[in-house]
Records
---
Amino acid sequence: MDYLFAKLSWEKKAVEEANENVKRKHKHGTGICSVFILDTSESMAGEGLRQMKQAFHEILEEYTFLDKSDNVAVIRCGEEVKFLHYFSCNYLSIKNCVENIQCKGHSPLEAGVILSHSCLNLGGGHTVNMSPLQIRARAVVISDGNPTEITSSTESAETSPESETFKRLLSEIQRQGELTPFTFIPVGKRPNYRILGALALASKGGRLIGWQDARQYARLSLNFQVAGSLLRRYQDTTITEDLVRNAYQRYSRGSEEDINQVCEILNEKEAYDIVTEAESVFKERYPTMPCVGTRVQRGQDWIYGNQDGHGPGTVIGHSQNAGWINVEWDNEKRYSYRYGREGIGEFYDVQICNEPRLIPENVNIAVGCLVRKGPDWKWGDQNGDEESIGTVYHVKNRNEVYVRWPNGNKSNYRFGYNDKYDVIVCDPRDSDIMERYFFQKKMEKDKNQTENNGGLPK
């Protein structure tokens, strides 16, 4: 089977599985979401399987003890790659689903990671607010670290960091790991620490932990709670290890591992900071891709079901991974899509369109709205000129908006904050407004083409 076709098939399957997870929302707890990818390839038979089961069972036992209503989903990855259990906090049912698994076939971990996308970024899971920390759905991979190609039917003895298999898996982890932490738990007689360690480093907040210490993973919920309370209480103070120890007395007696885990969370708080997430999501990185504020609709390579609500959306930023852009649809759902060259292929999940953003009468402003200078403007010629029409690409707290102007400038403005309006909404049904807007877009396009041709008109 061709690699590109196989990858597209798994991406399509991820969308289908996201919908299945959403249908089962009534079984979801309110706690943190973690999807476990269990390597069930033939090299895991014997000691690898025993260690994997013991680590997984201890994690579930700790979840039961803590009673935090954390959600667990399980994907097996071997001769078959499929969900064994969708998100749920019924730990007995989850434990039973792995009791009779057998290790057969190859180890297409890339397929398992792509399938986990359904839980992480396609709506299957959710983000938990432990203010000021925002805890997104997470992934845990338990494996001996010898992945094989998703098109292969046999397992290799050992995977090299120079192999295409590893490079493709690493690229997938990097793409999802931009916002999703991946934890790797090595098991087996001779786990490939070199491979698993490199993959753990590829995601923001990634971890490599021993299978004997797996129970500590389940304690993240408690330790995020402790870290969040400390950050709220000591906003302008350096949080020392002693403060962490004292804080634990309010919850329970923390072990040294708990203390260390809270300190790690505090040291890496940017990985769980919604502001940092926003800065990453909304960044405009590549001049060859549609700029922030561009209106789009599903394109020729669309494989994502009804994510767009069969309507248009707005480009809100460029992913760190070349070939991907971030889109917020008019139904307020936000996902990443391929646009241009990504890996070995060129794909266009979305295409540029000219459908303006229309909002209900009870909504004041939204992503995709057109705006111009308002009565309280005090920002000089930041917008370009008096007649400039910009596009909203982010709405913060409904009284602060982020706008991109035709000259390429981007900034945040008051929209109701202290009754001040730096910008006001334009009516997209006004023909004069739209004529001005499309004229600006044409001028901007011509300017970009001239710059890309070394200053010569195209």
Note: The chain has three domains: 3-218, 282-352, 370-445.
---
Amino acid sequence: MRLKLKVFEDGYSKSKRMMLNIDYLQNEVFKNRLKFKITRVWNIHYNLGIYADENNHVIGNTQYNYYLLQDNRLLKKNLEEVIKAYNSTPEKFSLKEQNSKDAFEYGRKCGKILAYAQRILEDFDASISVSINTPSKKFYYADYNTNKKSTLFPNGEDGKAIRLYLLHTLSTLNFPLYVLKKYEKNDYGWFLKSYYISYYYTVHKLRDLQQYLIQNKLLTPEISSYFTELDIENAKYLNSTFRNYIMHSNLTDKNGNFLIDSKYLDKDIPLFGLVETCFDGMSYYELKDAILSEVTKISDILSRWLNIESLKFKPLD
């Protein structure tokens, strides 16, 4: 599950294969929910749902959510092998009740582990408190068929993978920014970790895409202008040491050396001086503000690139 947070842990070429395999599976699942077989070849179904907040910020989509619960070993195979696997046991890829039970059980186990960790940390000698807001939740949705031309997929099948890649990246970037951020009350270190990991992997995924487009001579003037705005080659806050801590929650490196410089070590500040050590004395809150500014900029550019403002969202009951 931790690897899934990387959006797609490989370069764009392998990610493209995985995305199109997911797109195929979701297309088959939703197509086969149509009552009459004759209608399944009409391409009238939806195979992608996009979720947004009240301000039309994309915060998730069904194909990325589906990816989170699939076996990457299958998704990395050729489409022909995925088709064969689906045809042999379509029920394994369906949206039936058992899938919901499996997801619920996974969530329940995660909750038990987190509750146990919280009980242990209550006795930790640090002046931190865990408290969050309980904001009202108003979400919206829009349904699309990725095989048909639309404002989201203006070229139909051509370029579909790139649009899905950008949509998945935007979804993982915006969920912390526009959903989790509303819960922030007393920040004891968790919220920056959430914002930072989405920032870190967004930059890397966009760099992968840019290199793929350059190598395959697909970088049009319009796309190039978006990359100029993004300026990902000069991303200022990429730090592998800080990233490793966030992904592994270990305050020592692979050689057992403590990551926090003694001059910054302070048990009463968020992350105990790790931020100050990794970012030349920059405070936790200074870094968080800087990351939020970068994330917001990237989100706005990707939203324009995907023409999100043209999508017609409906209230989600």
Note: The chain has a mean pLDDT of 89.
---
Amino acid sequence: MVNFKKNNYYFLSVIYLLYIYSVNYKFLPLDSSKIIWLILCLFILVRVLIELNKGVVNISLLRKYYPFFLYVALFIIVLFCSLFNGANNFTIPYYLIIYVIDYIPCAILISYFCFKYNINVVDLIVRVGVIQALLIFLMLLIPSFKEMYGGIVSISGNILDYYSYRGVGVTGFANYTVGTTQAMILCIYVLDLFKRERFKFLDLIRIGIIFFSALFSSRSSIVVLLLFLSFILIFLIDKKYFWKKIVPLIFLIVLFFSISIFYLISNQQVIDNNFIIKWALEPVINYINFGELATKSSDTISTFYFIPEYKTLFFGDWLYVNSDGTYYKSVDAGYMRILLYMGLPLSIFLYTTFTLSFLIFSLNLKFKLDRVFTIFFIFTIFVLNYKGNAFIDASAMFKLYFLYFTSILYENYKNVT
């Protein structure tokens, strides 16, 4: 007999994988995320509107997201200013409006599918992380597989060359967004385990798989995980099960990684013969040799920050990329890219809108740990924005956030009704 629930898990896992990790396949006219978005929009027109009358989907769920409709006003303002100032790129306005036309609607619909087929949303998210991790490991271990997959993905040559030493996973390339997304999946997974107050051996295996895939993709993933751990520890410090179960687990994990790092650092030949290990341990190696946790990328980022001229500082240049598609003024740092585009006043308005919308939304979350997680998420986006434009590059993290908490709101609604 066919296990329909199991098949639905696999189906939705693949669908959501291609949604959060947008892929440009050569044989498709649009990237995978946009195609899935269009399919879900079609579902809205064909089925959801019919079932609204039956009470299957609760339109009042949208009311929970009213703070994010601030982005509609922000979108109109930024779009008008972009057109008025002859902007050469509309990436920022585009990503401001997809909160209300992409992230939230898709989160509601995917949550609906999960509840319809009795699928746990966290299990779905974890499966996505594991599938991506296994693909990354396969591409690290089997170069021919990576080459074959790269043949069907549309990607510019310079990016492919730059990331040739990392696993690429389903996306076709790997950068800090892949690592931070895997880290976000891991955070949601651990958050759910904390709430259930249970840790099984299989959970530890999955945590290890996703963790290493995040580490191999980007060192920025460590920043996300350390921030998450800091926020969670503050909340759990007075819980008995934290001291009985979590602290011993953390101690074993830290001990394991400390021994592993010490072994690798003590074997120069291993480091010299493996570029990935050398790249991953670069901060530790630099600290031992030079006394500072610096990397080439962190040193480069600091050069991207400068005080622009008065007009640019307050009114922006409304230029996001150069004519050849490269970064405007060769700047690849989130705060500076937004500042150069729209100026300081609108930048502050954007950051304020982001912060307030998520904080107000968190009032709908009954569980204190969920509200703590929202604060962690806000803080993390601001930290990541120092390196890259997280308000755009971290779109997958936003999708994960909305799916997870939409599923909680949907479950609360189902329990009430």
Note: The radius of gyration is 22 Å.
---
Amino acid sequence: MASDVALIAATMAATPFLQAVATHFGNRLAGAVDAGAREVLRRFLRRQAEEHRDEPTGFVHVIHLRTEHGSQIEMTVNTPPEALALLPAVCDADDPVSEADRRPQVPVVIRWRDDRWQATTVRASGYMAAFDWDAEAGEWREHHFRRPIFRG
């Protein structure tokens, strides 16, 4: 059963990962991708993840990337090509909330959800901060919350 399988994470720096993707796929990720190309991408991501896995054994499903700004990107080996095509711009962008404006030791976490990159963290004030990546503008767009999730 799938629920009985331990999913192992692979952790690596974002820049070398993106360089490997660019070397292997070039600009092909930006164009139309058929089902066969999606399977090739899945195999490539799985191979990259297995080379950097955190545990010595196990099936790698989750990839954790660290950007130079300190954000954590969580993605799976099934991340679609259109998401990977946007990832270099996401990684090059400044964090949507500076370290000084975040709760201590709470990173910005970026995930591909609902067909877009989303970032979340907690502001120093205790309010949740959530953002969507606007590919056209090349910046993060914030969602505003009314209540803090942490007090004090």
Note: The longest strand covers residues 59-66.
